[in-house]
Amino acid sequence: ALGRRLGGRCAAADRWVLGWLCYDVLVHCTLEGPFVYLSLIGTVAESDNIFASLWKEYGRADARWLYSDPTIVSLEILTVVLDGLLALILIYAIIKDKYYRHFIQITLCVCELYGGWMTFCPDWLIGSPNLNTSNWLYLWVYLVFFNGIWIVLPGLLLWQSWLGLKQMHHEKSNTRKKIR
């Protein structure tokens, strides 16, 4: 709804992108931000508030989130600060049709994909001792679905930027040919 409201004059695809970006900012700031805070002052496992309860539940799927794993906390600091800011800038760039839109979009997507890779690859390399893959809910909903969103959608947005840049290049090439 927020994407539709913000992108009133934008193309339908961009309204969907704006919806995703609004969701992305909300998750980074309102869910992952408190995780970073809890991890810097102690651990999620030691904390007792609504955000800690949420992360304790997710910690049943990936125990690293309970005990302030340095890789996870480092990535989440980067995600909250950099990805949150880039998503806000990208929202503005799409709404105002700014020339730097695809640069920001590609940068954000690469950051999101890097975050997904670095969240799981180190644990995979040591045999996934922190991942609970024996429970259907934890494996397929918490680990695959909730994390897969941040792989699939940035991948689609990279493709959108590729097509947008390709179109701009062809338009510029065609303009040059007409001038000659």
Automatic annotation (TrEMBL):
GO BP field: sterol metabolic process
Keyword Cytoplasm: no
GO molecular function: cholestenol delta-isomerase activity
Membrane topology: Multi-pass membrane protein
GO annotations of cellular component type: endoplasmic reticulum; membrane
InterPro entries attached to this UniProt entry: EBP (IPR007905), EXPERA (IPR033118)
Family annotation (Pfam families): EBP
Domain of life: Eukaryota
Keywords on record: Membrane, Transmembrane, Transmembrane helix
Subcellular location: Membrane
Domain EXPERA: 13-158
Segments passing through the bilayer: 72-95, 102-120, 140-159
Family designation: Belongs to the EBP family.
Descriptive protein name: EBP like
Organism expressing this protein natively: Gopherus evgoodei
Phylogenetic lineage: Eukaryota, Metazoa, Chordata, Craniata, Vertebrata
